Amino acid sequence: MNFVLSVKKWAAAVAVAACACAVAAPAAEAAPADSTTCRDVKIPVALTHGGPQNSHIAGTYCTDAKGPGSVVQILIPGATYDRSYWDFPGFGGRYSYVKHASRAGQATLAIDPIGVGKSTLPVGWQVSSPSSAQAVHEVIRAMRNGRLGRSWDKVVLVGHSFGSLTAMLEAGTYNDVDGLLISGASHAPGPGGIAQIIGNVRPAVDDPATKGTTPDGDYTYLSVPNVRAGAFHAPGDSDPAVVKADEATRVAGTAGILATIPVFIPATFDIDVPVLIANGSADKVFCAQGDGGSLTDCANTQSLYRSERPFFPRAELSTYVLPGAGHSMNLALNNRAFFDRAVSWVDAI
């Protein structure tokens, strides 16, 4: 029994390492710009290919009233995240990717992954990399089919950390998107970053911040308190008030993804659309320069390209490194440089 619990605890930390932590934001704060309209939506999904659509994905859908644009970005947070990682509340909207994309006239759909937030919360073991990718695939199909009022010809998946792993698995499996933007992830997680959080994993019901937010008694829903400052933020490139807000609003994730995390790796060899990989140079979870012990070299754009190019033989690959930023790039003081690069890359697809 002790061995099983230890394995689950270690694997939970690996899953959390593929995330960084997001912040729960009320829907009322999702109004990025005067010309942008945002609304909460629910999209029916199945958790298995060909299965019944008896689950749903919840999200916030934002479009520019002045002009619909030509592309929609589907924003996927990592494990233990909800959609508000992409629209971080407060601070004058400085840390909101959604607001930035909206000002550039780009539509977004920020989602809660399956098992998170207001999406369906199955028992934890049903939440896996394949079921997460399957749910995102059905969201993409809904956007193509006009379920939310418009049929989108161009769909770009944008992920952070485990959300990026989900996006890579989805894109390589279903080949149904026009572009893939990966942030806070690489093919070589660093044991140093994992070690910083492994001792803090606990059942969600034992953490005051997450107790009552998950299926009652499901031990596979987990929380990891007191790790964000050390593991996900770079001291020289973060606002202590933002780090505090990030920690205070942590969200529970599941252990159901643990054994299936590596399945995304072979999928990237089949991705044949434009790909942008963006990491912070001080990322302690996925980059060597962040003292994480990763094999991924995030010293600069060229070194990141050399590290990741072998995994994307068919893709038109671009890379970007945000100097000094930690794992939670959206929350870095210089996040604007990353946001600018991201929206210009999406525009060019």
Automatic annotation (TrEMBL):
<protein>
    <submittedName>
        <fullName>Alpha/beta fold hydrolase</fullName>
    </submittedName>
</protein>
<dbReference type="InterPro" id="IPR000073">
    <property type="entry name" value="AB_hydrolase_1"/>
</dbReference>
<dbReference type="Pfam" id="PF12697">
    <property type="entry name" value="Abhydrolase_6"/>
</dbReference>
<feature type="signal peptide">
    <location>
        <begin position="1"/>
        <end position="30"/>
    </location>
</feature>
<dbReference type="GO" id="GO:0016787">
    <property type="term" value="F:hydrolase activity"/>
</dbReference>
<feature type="domain" description="AB hydrolase-1">
    <location>
        <begin position="74"/>
        <end position="331"/>
    </location>
</feature>
<keyword id="KW-0732">Signal</keyword>
<dbReference type="InterPro" id="IPR029058">
    <property type="entry name" value="AB_hydrolase_fold"/>
</dbReference>
<keyword id="KW-0378">Hydrolase</keyword>
